[in-house]
Design a protein that fits this description.
mainly alpha, transmembrane, receptor, Iontro_rcpt_C
Length: 144
C-alpha cells in the first residue's frame, strides 16, 4: 500500500495529549550548563558585538565601505553575535582585519559552546538518574 499523503494528528480542545507549556519546560534546556557559564556566554557575546561595532566605526575611513558602515549598527552587531551562537552566518561581514578577527573569534566561541552544549545535553537526556549510576559504578569498583 503506497502512502500518498502525510497526516499529523493534533489533539483539539485542551491539553488532552499535549503537555502544557510552562517555564519549567524551557528552563530544562538551561540545565546542562551551569548558570555561570550562561552569564559568561552572554558577556562574551556582548563583548564580541562591542568589539565588532567599534572596529567598524573606527576603521570606516580606511577599510570599511559605506554600505558596511550603514548596515553594522549596534543592534545588527548584537544580533549577528547571537547568530554565531546558533550557528548562523553574519548578514554582512566587515571588511577590516580587526572586525573580521572579532567575527572569527565570536564564530569560534559559538562553535565551541554549541558542540559542548550538544554533548552535555545528549548525556544529560540519556542518563535517567545520576546518583544511581554513580552508586553502580562505585559498586563495580568495589567488586573488582
Amino acid at each position: 500500500m503506497a502512502v500518498t499523503e502525510d497526516r499529523f494528528y493534533v489533539p483539539r480542545g485542551g491539553s488532552t495529549g499535549a503537555p502544557a507549556v510552562s517555564f519549567d519546560m524551557f528552563s530544562s534546556l538551561l540545565k546542562p550548563l551551569h548558570r555561570d557559564v550562561w552569564w559568561l556566554l552572554l558577556c562574551a557575546l556582548m563583548l564580541v558585538a562591542v568589539v565588532v561595532w567599534a572596529a567598524v566605526r573606527f576603521n570606516h575611513v580606511r577599510a570599511e565601505s559605506a554600505q558596511t558602515l550603514r548596515e553594522m549598527s549596534w543592534g545588527s552587531c548584537l544580533l549577528s553575535s547571537f547568530m554565531t551562537l546558533v550557528c548562523q552566518s553574519w548578514v554582512r561581514t566587515p571588511d577590516s582585519l580587526a572586525a573580521r578577527t572579532a567575527v572569527l573569534s565570536g564564530w569560534l566561541l559559538g562553535v565551541l559552546i554549541y558542540q559542548n552544549y550538544t554533548a552535555i545535553l545528549i548525556s544529560y537526556l540519556t542518563v535517567d538518574d545520576r546518583t544511581q549510576t554513580h552508586q553502580q559504578s562505585t559498586g563495580v569498583l568495589r567488586s573488582a
